[in-house]
Amino acid sequence: MRLADYLKQNDLTPEMFAEMAGIHFTTVYRLIAGSGMPKRSTIRAIIEATKGHVRAIDLIESDEEERQVG
């Protein structure tokens, strides 16, 4: 599941999710926009915060798709 879909489905703002996951809110915005490859620690934090609903491959594929389209 894409991170943006998870946030929408759970009625969370990027700021709320960032606090839950222990990451900076600008990181969440960048990941939603598909800009930049997330660090391993960020990927782990997102997987834990979403209880596995957002997987590593979801974050990586989102980034790859943006680069191919852009």
- Structural class label: mainly alpha
Q: Architecture, according to CATH? A: Orthogonal Bundle
Contiguous helical run count: 5
- Main β-sheet description: none
Instruction: Report the C-alpha radius of gyration, rounded.
Output: 11 Å
- Helix amount: 55-70%
Total count of strands: 0
Mean pLDDT: 90
> What count of domains describes the coordinates?
1
Assembly form of the protein: single chain
Q: Alpha-carbon distance between the termini?
A: 22 Å
**Envelope shape:** globular
Do you know the CATH topology? 434 Repressor (Amino-terminal Domain)
**Text of the CATH class:** Mainly Alpha
| Share in β-strands | under 5%
Describe what this molecule looks like in 3D.
- It is a single chain.
- The protein is mainly alpha-helical.
- The chain has a single domain, classed as 434 Repressor (Amino-terminal Domain) (Orthogonal Bundle).
- Helices cover 69% and strands 0% of the residues.
- It is built from 5 helices and no strands.
- The chain is globular.
- 19% of the residues are buried.
- The model has no long low-confidence stretch (mean pLDDT 90).
How would you summarize what this structure contains?
The chain has 70 residues and is an all-alpha fold. It has helices spanning 3-9, 14-21, 25-33, 40-49, 56-69. It has a single domain (3-69), classed as Orthogonal Bundle (434 Repressor (Amino-terminal Domain)).
